[in-house]
Amino acid sequence: MAKVVDKDAKRKHILRSAMRVFAEKGVANTKMTDIAQAAGIGKGTIYEYFSSREELFESAFEYLLRKIKAMMVSQIDESLGPEDRLRQGFLAYLDVATMQIEDFVEILLDFWAYGIRNKNNGENLALDIRTRYQELRDLTIPLLEEGIQTGLFKPHDTYLVASAIIAAGDGLLLQWMADRNNFNLKQAAQTILEVILRGIRNAT
After folding, report:
1. For 139-178, what is each residue's pLDDT tens digit?
2. Number of other residues whose CB lies within 10 A of the CB of residue 100
């Protein structure tokens, strides 16, 4: 009897294997044969799940972002008020981003750099970074709007404030990457978020 293959599980196995190779070799230096070897399959098997190297790389990028987003959302307590949930979400993003989940930060930055280089070279690698930021804004804006509606926050442009909060998180991650032993990421995150919240919070 032919062995039944769980195609979804096999596809995820290939993506996880790709992450390990990306962390070791870098995105630009990774070949399909490297991923096949890491996954313990033949190179031809990869093409049964991904039509091209570009599709595999794009799928790996999206897989990584979905995983991080799911872990971040799982750490938010929906019973809390909007400010506390905003704080939880912000700190959770930085927390899961530094937990060495398939070397998240390094691979993500490597993807960005690789995607930009390819775009400038006229190659087609559609890493949808714009959607990634929009999804983060979609998590943040409702909390800001709820804060305004309840009188906790002053009226403000929620799109711009959400963008500023996300930018602050990314900026802190870059500084932490540059000096992990000395840069206190959690303390810096708590401080910068409090500065932002103080600017939009209604006086009591």
Report:
1. 999 999 999 999 999 999 999 999 999 999 989 988 888 8
2. 10
H/E run at residue 45? helix 43-46
Helices (H), 98-203: 104-120, 129-149, 158-178, 185-200
C-alpha 57/C-alpha 19 separation (Å) is 10
CA distance 178 to 163: 23
Question: Radius of gyration of the chain from Cα atoms?
Answer: 20
Token pair, residue 195, equals: 């500065």
Q: What are the tens digits of pLDDT across the range 57-103? A: 888 888 878 887 888 888 899 999 999 999 999 998 888 767 665 56
What's the CATH number where 124 sits? 1.10.357.10
Residue 173: partners with Cβ closer than 8 Å, 6 or more residues away: 94, 97, 98, 105, 185
Residue 35 sits at φ, ψ, to 5 deg, of: -65, -40
* CA gap 176, 105 in Å, rounded: 10
Structural domain span for residue 195: 61-200
Instruction: Flag whether 55 is in a domain.
Output: no
Q: What is the pTM of this model?
A: 0.79
- The residue whose two tokens read 């809390």 is 80
Are 79 and 172 found together in one domain? yes
Spatial contact of 135 and 69, defined as CB atoms under 8 Å apart = yes
Phi then psi for residue 201, to 5 deg, are: -75, 140
Give the H or E element holding residue 11: helix 7-25
Residues in the chain: 204
